Amino acid sequence: MNWTAIKAIYAFEMARFFRTITQSIISPVLSTSLYFVVFGAAIGSRIEEVEGVSYGAFIVPGLIMLSVITQSISNASFGIYFPKFIGTVYELLSAPINFFEIVIGYVGAAATKALFIGTIILITAFFFVDITIQHPIAMVAFLILTCISFALMGFIIGIWAGNFEQLQLVPLLIVTPLVFLGGSFYSISMLPPVWQVISHFNPVVYLISGFRWAFFGSADVPILTSLAAIALFTALCLGVIWWIFRTGWRLRA
Amino acid sequence: MPTIVDIQNLRKSYAGGFEALKGVNLQIEQGEILALLGSNGAGKTTLISTICGITTATSGKVTVGGHDIKDDFRAARSMIGLVPQEINLEPFERVLNTVRFSRGLFGRPADEAVLEKILRQLSLWDKKDSQIRELSGGMKRRVLIAKALSHDPKVLFLDEPTAGVDVELRKDMWEIVAGLKASGVTIILTTHYIEEAEAIADRIGVIAKGELLLVEEKDALMARMGKKQLEVQLTEPITEVPLALQSPDVELSADGRSLIYTYDTNAERTGITKLLSKVAESGLVLQDVATRQSSLEDIFVDLLKEDAA
């Protein structure tokens, strides 16, 4: 393992993040605050408790997941797409590093950024609603696993994308609907039976459910199923990345 | 000199069937400056990209310092620095930072003293905190060189280092290259400026359509392929070459004031004495004589013509 190279990529990517730290923090804090004002205070006061939790508190895990998933994907996809776009990728390809070291560097940095933002949103949430986290270790573990797995997915998108439109396409058309329909703002049990069945095909449901379990101790699907789902998703992304590594797809002519 | 880069029967064909490299064999000697000459699309960049790991070869074998570029890619690539043809740099990054990144990427421990030495050597130290976008084109090229040198490579590939660079900067670049050679770095540069190869190379390789037509010492090549011309200027203009002097090697200039005789420098007899005596016999009066040697450019054009024929 060329740890020096991994560290160099990681530090380089994190430096980019910290150059724009104000934007990086203000944007999620602002949007989360807006969600709390609208859904928590304004509408939430007219919604009864969901699974024994006030609606304002109920949406916290979903809101964190929404930001964390979006951030992981966009950070990782941009991180590897940008060198391709401006041509600096030649340096990655000619350096004495293998593809997994490149992945660790970029995905590690993207996941760290997303984790950072997820933490900030959680801190913001404490200002608006009363929440106690029942399984803090499981909560942190879920958060980290989500950051890593979606950063892996973002990395694949960044390799695949041939232009900036394509870079936005998957997050916009696939990920955002999946996250919104994945129970960020409601419990799956609140849906009509047909939609409950359909929802079980949405991988994000398992993530949000598991994450919510870590907060409140109740979930739409069993916690082990959630863990299995995220493990499967991570394995799938790793498989695709391994294939890219083998073939040099979209990287090496 | 021992061989540092050994290229054996290297082939590269693309999915569409286009063969960019058709079995290239080349041994690059340690410490030399090798210039690869060729027109656009001849395969120069493909050859470099394949050695450096940016494209994968279809078949063939390349070793750098004895390390195979596939099986032992870490050792091979650690020895190589690459300066690409395009100015591929992050516009908002700062000079020192981007060079530091390159060193790390090649697995070398952080060493600010080394970075300072490289930046000073390339007259970039004053610009170390500047953003790349603030630099001139020539400075950006220097940054690319600094990045390529950051991990102390033994072999440096310069892909068209002076393409689109003005005359002054080109001379400047030649000095940098000469300095690098003096420090023991083996240099392979591609160019389509023949005067560049003529000015700085030890050996010259000519590539056309994915094939290496020849590799030879520059001086030997110029002596072997070089032709000399003798210009005999006359006091009075003539309308045609006198009968005694008529030969395929003798031409009359357009103004009729001089005879131009082309001869082979390596021939046992150049034929100059004979020519001059015939000039006198024909009753022509000499005003002056001058000789000219063909440049590498003429040799290059001849080679490509031969290849096409």
Features:
heterodimer; A: 253 residues; mainly alpha; 10 helices; B: 309 residues; alpha/beta; Alpha-Beta Plaits; 6-stranded mixed beta sheet; 4-stranded antiparallel beta sheet; elongated; ABC-2_transport_permease (chain A); transmembrane (chain A); ABC_2_transport (chain A); cell membrane (chain A); membrane (chain A)
Quick overview of this protein structure:
The complex is a heterodimer of chains A (253) and B (309). Chain A has 253 residues and is mainly alpha-helical.
Global outline of chain A = globular
User: What percent of residues of chain B are in strands?
Assistant: 25-35%
Q: What's the N-to-C terminus distance of chain B?
A: 35 Å
The CATH topology of the largest domain in chain B: Rossmann fold
Strand content of chain A: under 5%
**Class computed from helices, strands and strand pairing of chain A:** mainly alpha
Number of domains of chain B: 2
Largest sheet of chain B: 6 strands, mixed
**Which structural class matches the secondary elements of chain B?**
alpha/beta
The major pleated sheet of chain A works out as: none
Main location (chain A): membrane
Protein name (chain A): Transport permease protein
Keywords (chain A): Cell membrane, Membrane, Transmembrane, Transmembrane helix, Transport
Pfam families (chain A): ABC2_membrane
Q: What does this entry look like structurally?
A:
The complex is a heterodimer of chains A (253) and B (309). With 253 residues, chain A is mostly helical. Chain A has one domain (3-247). Chain A has helices at 3-19, 21-43, 55-86, 89-94, 99-128, 136-160, 164-180, 193-199, 203-216, 223-247. In chain A, helix 2 (21-43) crosses helix 5, helix 3 (55-86) packs parallel to helix 6 and helix 5 (99-128) crosses helix 6. The mean pLDDT of chain A is 90. Chain B has 309 residues and is an alpha/beta fold. Chain B folds into 2 domains: 3-223, 3-Layer(aba) Sandwich (Rossmann fold); 227-293, Alpha-Beta Plaits. In chain B, 33% of the residues lie in helices and 29% in strands. Chain B has 10 helices and 14 strands. Chain B has a 6-stranded mixed sheet with strand order 6-7-8-3-9-10, sandwiched between helices. Chain B has a 4-stranded antiparallel sheet with strand order 2-1-4-5. Chain B is elongated. Chain B starts with a strand and ends with a helix. At the A-B interface, helix 1 and helix 4 of A face helix 2 and helix 3 of B.
